[in-house]
Each structure stands twice: as C-alpha cells, then as structure tokens.
Amino acid sequence: MAPPLEHGAHISGTTRRSLLAGVAALGTLGAAGCSRVATASTEGGGELLDRLRATGVVRLGIAGEIPFGYIDKNGELTGEAPELARVVFKRLGVEKVQPVPTEFGSLIPGLNSQQFDVVAAGMYVTPERCEQVIFADPDYQMLDSFIVRKGNPKGLHNYQDVVEKKAKFATGTGYAEIQYAVEAGYKESDILIVPDQVAGLNAVEAGRVDVFAGTALTTREVVKKSAKAEATKAFTPTVGGKPHVDGGAFAFRRTETNLRDAFNVELRKLKKSGELFRILQPFGFTKAEMTDLTAKELCGG
C-alpha cells in the first residue's frame, strides 16, 4: 500500500496494500506459480541464497513507486527498498542488485514464477499475501492520510468522515485504502480508482474528487509542491473494529526460508544500530515509521 508514493514517479499502490478483489485473481496466478517453484527447490529452506552468492547478483522486483522502489531520472535504481537491499545483500555476500520493474499487482505472481528473486517494493504484509509468499519482518510501519483541497473544506480526517459527509473518494489501484473505506461504509463501486498518488493529487486539484487516500508518507511527499492541495494529519484506519497499523517488508518465495531468515538477521542488526533509519530517512521516512512489528504478527499468527 503502506506509501511513496512518491510517492514523483509512477506509483501503483501503498506499498504495500492488502489484496483486494482485482488483485485476488492475480493471487491465484501467484499460488499456481508457487506450486511450480516448490518442485524445483530443495527442501530444508531452499538454496537461493547460495545461488545468489555464486552469481553475485540478486534480482529485485520493483513497482516504480516512489519512494519504495523506482528508477530515477538518471536511470538509476533507488528507493527505500533497493537501498536497503544493497546493504543487506552485500552483508550476505551478494554484491549487485538488479531491478526488474513490473506492475504492483504482478509482483507476487512474478516472484513465484521466478521472474525475480525477491520483492523489494515496500509491500504491506497482509494475511492474504502471507498465504502466497513469506515476508521478512517489516522495515517500516505506516499510517494513512488524505490529500484534500487547501484548508480541507469538507473537514475530512478519517474514513468515517468521508462516509458521513458523502465525499467523492479516490484511491490507488490495489491499495489497502479501498478496503478501509469499504469497512467504514463507503460503497466500493463509488470509489474512483486511479493509478497512483500523482493521479490522485491531480483528481483532487481538478475537483473531480474531494479526497484521495494513501499512506501518510506518500501523501505528504506528493503535495509538497501543490498550491491547491494539502495532506491531512496521519491517522490509524480501522479493520474489524480495531485500529490497524500496516507494515511494509521484503517478500520471498515460500520455499526460500533460508534466505528470508538470513535477511532478517541482518535487518535486526540495522534496526538495533540505527542504520536502518539512516537508510530510509532520505526517502521521507521519519522515526515514527520505524517499527518492531514482526511478519508473524501481521500475517495473523
């Protein structure tokens, strides 16, 4: 879901967001891909880490989403996830990262069909996704925020406000914010789905919608140069009647537990030393986005 969305580049959905109806169909493809991959992997945790060390290259699935993983104006791979990947995989003995751009909804199917080795796109950890891939522990946590007209004329601060004030609502393709709005009582068929946060900003500025929902990080980044729109204060959405905080993480094929576990060891070291924050800070992350959440918690057990 997740943002960053940045989220200035093409973004397709904080980072990260829960699998919804449209993405569920892709999930089926992912599950099938996972079955095929399983037959080709060794038992006992997989051998991918050894193969990556032998080749010296790890292929990263990215979704062109700022600030999570994207190609910048100079044609260079960057973003919070690729920069973190460079550090972690170098510590694991893999010197080079290679981007494999795809649509956000194609990340899990692409991973499970071996188009790349790991998803490095700030993807939110959700129970639905945990049935198809395994996640490292989250490297960040995220609340939601809205893009609204300057001054927030309708007073929209959460999804309940959107419903009660009959606001015209938009969010991004595959974003978890679709689910959050529906849980609050917004009719899904009335939601305007746009490609990313930049398109959402344009829709608000043009008056086509009253509000665009995204991650706190992506909304505050995308409105920085806007004369017509602003981002609301970050808030916690409600899921199942309880406050819900999302966490974004790297995803691996279910057979590759050795790689996931080794990644987690290095990630914990970076968290403890404070280096993780130093890596993510240039991409708009604050200390409020640092987290001790685990993948197990977010997977539902």
Automatic annotation (TrEMBL):
Signal peptide positions on this chain: none
One GO term (biological process): ectoine transmembrane transport
Stretches assigned to the Solute-binding protein family 3/N-terminal domain: 57-287
One term of GO molecular function: ectoine binding
Entry keywords, A to Z: Signal
UniProt keyword annotation of Metal-binding present: no
Transmembrane segments: none
Name assigned to this protein: Ectoine/hydroxyectoine ABC transporter substrate-binding protein EhuB
Taxonomic lineage of the native organism: Bacteria, Bacillati, Actinomycetota, Actinomycetes, Kitasatosporales
